[in-house]
Design brief:
The protein is α+β, with helices and mostly antiparallel strands and 99 residues long. The protein has one domain: Alpha-Beta Plaits, CATH 3.30.70.100. It contains three helices and four strands. The protein has a four-stranded antiparallel beta sheet with strand order 2-3-1-4, covered by helices on one side. It is globular.
């Protein structure tokens, strides 16, 4: 069928939105307790953290004074995530265990 407009090849169909890099990621969440509430400058810096390769999202819980960070564990460590938060201006106190 050399002149066929298309042909089906089982097993070679790929989702165009999933790359081999996505398959190799290890998605993790980590939660830290923080002291002083982050100010406007810190929140802007945190927004910039999402541009760092491996950070998926940052979520604050003001009532519990915690911050949850989703990250790629194959690229970053828990210490690196804490360091990024501190560099952004978050008063990180302790790491909490996830239930």
């Amino acid at each position: 069928m050399e002149d066929a407009l298309y042909w089906i090849q089982p097993g070679k169909v790929r989702d165009p939105f999933i790359t081999s890099k996505d398959i190799l990621m290890t998605y993790l969440d980590i939660v830290f307790r923080y002291g002083a509430a982050p100010g406007e400058a810190a929140l802007r810096a945190i927004d910039g953290m999402r541009e760092v390769y491996g950070i998926r999202g940052v979520q604050f819980n003001e009532a519990e004074r915690t911050v949850r960070v989703g990250y790629d564990g194959s690229r970053l460590t828990a210490d690196a995530v804490a360091r990024l938060l501190r560099q952004a201006g978050v008063d990180v106190r302790e790491r909490l265990a996830l239930a």
